[in-house]
Write a structure and sequence with these properties.
- By secondary structure, this protein is α+β, with helices and mostly antiparallel strands.
- The strands form three sheets. A seven-stranded mixed beta sheet has the order 3-4-5-9-8-7-6, sandwiched between helices.
- It is globular and about 75 Å long.
- It folds into three domains: 54 residues, Orthogonal Bundle (Arc Repressor Mutant, subunit A), CATH 1.10.10.10; 200 residues, 2-Layer Sandwich (BirA Bifunctional Protein, domain 2), CATH 3.30.930.10; 48 residues, SH3 type barrels.
- It contains nine helices and 14 strands.
- Helix 2 crosses helix 3.
Length: 319
């Protein structure tokens, strides 16, 4: 179906005969593919007698050549998928098959996109960015300290470069505009974290999404914030360049050098919040992060540090 999408993406009318000739199939086969596109990708396709078929709006698809053609974009291999269960899941499969890192997996849509703690990541077709970067990590746990926070800084700076204002970071892996989520991060490991492993940095960014009733929390998008549509290939290049720079700094110096700048961007600094782990809840005041990226929470006048993939931080109603 990707070939058919590329024929239709200009938003102009194309006759069934023209499409069939380009695809080497009959007009009835073209109609079946069009129906599949509408149902599987939630695209609106207009059919007008005498003119043919037209997408309701022009569509810009992800393209490895367009991504690599941007200035200073890292020359990582890029795997682009039309529809996939999850870019993180595919990245892990490719590592298991022996694919050499670094490499990048992106997709137009996900059928089982994942956030932290098993949550669904809503993934409409060709609107947002579903991005998983794989790196090989040598040297044990020090190379992983605060890594999700470093990725958050890279995402924030990439969105600022596109004109998004008022961005803040929420510990440990959300990017916000005000109280609305614009991006999320999910890191997954495969291998031995004490020696040699691979880390998959999954990033979901709301890019051109304008409306969606499936998202169960406050959200916004780059287009909502700037009023302009975004070339997602350009965003992939910007994000990859920013990640490359920040990850190299992290590799050389560890997380401690990022601590102050991350705290300056922390949306909930000095706010009253609840830290939740399963059925356990701890209330306190957010005081920042430590040199390893753990959350510093003041509880009854005593400051404690918390870290762990299953922790969730929420603002208290009285904050």
């Amino acid at each position: 179906m990707l070939k058919l999408l590329n024929l239709l993406k200009d938003g102009r009318f194309h006759s069934g005969e023209e499409l069939g000739a380009a695809l080497g199939v009959s007009r009835s086969a073209v109609w079946k593919q069009l129906q599949s596109l509408q149902s599987e990708c939630s695209l609106t396709i207009h059919k007008v007698r005498g003119r043919g078929y037209q997408l309701s709006a022009p569509l810009q698809l992800l393209d490895p050549q367009a991504i690599g053609g941007h200035d200073q974009a890292p020359q990582w291999p890029v795997f682009v998928y039309e529809t996939i269960d999850s870019t993180n899941a595919e990245a892990l499969r490719l590592v298991g098959q022996g694919r050499s890192a670094p490499f990048l997996v992106v997709a137009e849509s996900q059928t089982a996109g994942r956030g932290r703690r098993g949550r669904q990541w809503v993934s409409p077709f060709a609107e947002n960015l579903y991005y998983s970067l794989v790196l090989r990590v040598d040297g044990g746990m020090r190379q992983l300290e605060g890594l999700s926070l470093v990725v958050g800084l890279a995402v924030m700076r990439s969105l600022q470069a596109l004109g998004v204002r008022g961005i803040g970071l929420k510990w440990p892996n959300d990017v916000l505009v005000g109280d609305q989520k614009i991006a999320g991060i999910l890191l997954e490991l495969i291998g031995d974290p004490a020696d040699i492993c691979h880390v998959v940095m999954g990033i979901g960014i709301n890019v051109n999404m304008q409306a969606n009733t499936e998202v169960d929390q406050l959200w916004t998008s780059v287009k909502r914030e700037t009023g302009k549509g975004v070339d997602r290939n350009h965003l992939v290049a910007i994000l990859s360049r920013q990640l490359g720079q920040e990850l190299e700094r992290h590799r050389r110096h560890g997380f401690a050098v990022f601590r102050e700048e991350w705290e300056q961007a922390h949306a909930w600094q000095n706010r009253e919040a609840s830290l939740i782990a399963g059925s356990t809840r701890v209330d306190g005041t957010v005081r920042g992060i430590d040199a390893q990226g753990a959350l510093r929470l003041e509880i009854d006048g005593i400051e404690k540090s918390f870290s762990g993939g299953e922790l969730s931080l929420r603002l208290r109603d009285d904050s």
